[in-house]
Amino acid sequence: MGQKLAYLLVKSSVIVALAMLSMLSTPKPAHAHEVLPTVADIEAREGAVLLTLRLNAEALLAGIDLDGLDNTETAPNAAEYDRLRALTPAQLEAQISANWGMMMAGLSLTLDGTAAPLSLLGAAVDPQADLSLPRVSQLRLTAPMPQGTTAMALHWPKGFGDLVLRQQGVEPAYTGYITGGQTSPAIALAGLGAPASGAAVFFSYIPVGFDHILPKGMDHILFVLGLFFLSTRLSMLLWQISAFTLAHTVTLALGALGWVSVPGSIVEPLIAASIVFVAVENITSRGLSPWRPAVVFGFGLLHGLGFASVLGDFGLPEAQFIPALIGFNIGVEIGQLTVVALAFLLVVAAQRVDLGRMVSSVAGWGYVAGALVFLAASVAQAMGQGAWMPDAVFLWGAAGLMILCMLSVFFVDQLDSYRRFVAVPASVFIGAVGAFWVVERLFL
């Protein structure tokens, strides 16, 4: 009775959220602190290469590291970013023109392997009356191109976030997705020639899908972890993962084709609500309820729309749409399975102790050591000594999970210690984060 009541309460809260969203006359605008990828158009013309960048100039002028960042409010230089945001377009254009060399330090262009110096043609800032919205600035750069040049490559500096690079003026043209610190492949000035094979496109989109889960898809990671913590039984996890995979595959395809389009102001809060739902049901239910796979399927449809929005940043090649879509989806699946595998590796000893298949003291001191290692790694990263390590949020999360597992094995004499000390507390945390995101995405 209590489980059914909890389910109805959560279900009602989701319906209320939908009703509130449906009453909005206009979609909720993006937040000024949201980090958007830079879009670059590159073209060879009349003895020169023209590079046009549409980017967040305030973030780069403030020296904010955009790699893996989704909101500048959490950046160390957020105050300087806000100061630059308050400038008029003319004032910001003057700042860009005076400091563009410093702002774009590390950006480089090579022509047939030889460095080509870039110079600024001009800067323009989109008029922005509402400072709550993201503001886009445009930089036009050029470099002289020797006669007979056949290929070019662009290096995108570390800390600059994601870049969508599009070749212009030729067909078929190169389009690529590059992260901070990467260099594009050599781009033929005459175009790609023969279109890329289906296999080449397929494999090139797998890392794009994986990257959207690890490390950037924190909401999707928490949802998958919510599925994982329901029960240690593999059959329960497979039912849920199968329903989730099938659902988000459907809406990912429909969204990428443009047949279904739902504003992010609706999708994103509901994705957060899905995290709350699975977390609450983990706490109130000890097994797979009859409605859980159907509910997970429904939430999977929402997550698929979220995945589809990522493809909107750089698009899918029309000639190889199906291989690209399948590659992206497989990358997403590999990312999800990696999350589950890593979580399993962290908790497997606690599960075995709970089942009486492992000595508690061995597992307990192993978890103590693991927690100390992850905590030390997070401190090292905070001090700038661990740039190669995962983001701090993953290190702190792993350390917290180690501590919960340590409590589980040290108190194994209590009935169902893994559920009491690991699954339920982890689900409480996941639900709390999801609830915060619901409020943030609806009202902040």
Question: What is the topological layout?
Answer:
Elements: H1 2-22, E1 38-45, E2 48-55, H2 57-61, H3 78-85, H4 89-103, E3 108-111, E4 114-116, E5 119-125, E6 137-144, E7 151-155, E8 163-167, E9 175-178, E10 187-188, H5 198-213, H6 218-228, H7 234-257, H8 264-284, H9 292-311, H10 321-354, H11 360-382, H12 392-410, H13 417-443
Helix pairs in contact: 1-8, 5-10, 6-8, 6-10, 6-13, 7-9, 8-9, 8-13, 10-12, 11-12, 12-13
Fold and architecture overview:
The chain has 2 domains: 2-28 and 210-356 and 412-443; 38-194, no CATH class. The strands form 2 sheets. Strands 5-6-2-1-8-9 form a 6-stranded mixed sheet. α6 (218-228) crosses α10. Residues 1-32 have low confidence and may be disordered. The protein has helices spanning 2-22, 57-61, 78-85, 89-103, 198-213, 218-228, 234-257, 264-284, 292-311, 321-354, 360-382, 392-410, 417-443; strands spanning 38-45, 48-55, 108-111, 114-116, 119-125, 137-144, 151-155, 163-167, 175-178, 187-188. It is an alpha+beta fold and 444 residues long.
Give a brief description:
This protein has helices spanning 2-22, 57-61, 78-85, 89-103, 198-213, 218-228, 234-257, 264-284, 292-311, 321-354, 360-382, 392-410, 417-443, and strands at 38-45, 48-55, 108-111, 114-116, 119-125, 137-144, 151-155, 163-167, 175-178, 187-188. The protein is α+β, with helices and mostly antiparallel strands and 444 residues long.
Task: Let me know the largest β-sheet.
Answer: 6 strands, mixed
* Largest beta sheet: strand ordering: 5-6-2-1-8-9
Taking pLDDT < 50 over at least 5 consecutive residues as the criterion, the unreliable ranges are 1-32
Mean pLDDT: 82
Backbone CA Rg: 24 Å
> How helix-rich are the residues, as a percent range?
40-55%
Beta strands, count: 10
Gross geometry = globular
Strand portion? 5-15%
Helix segment tally: 13
> What is the string of SSEs from the N terminus onward?
HEEHHHEEEEEEEEHHHHHHHHH
Briefly note the structural class of the backbone. Answer: alpha+beta
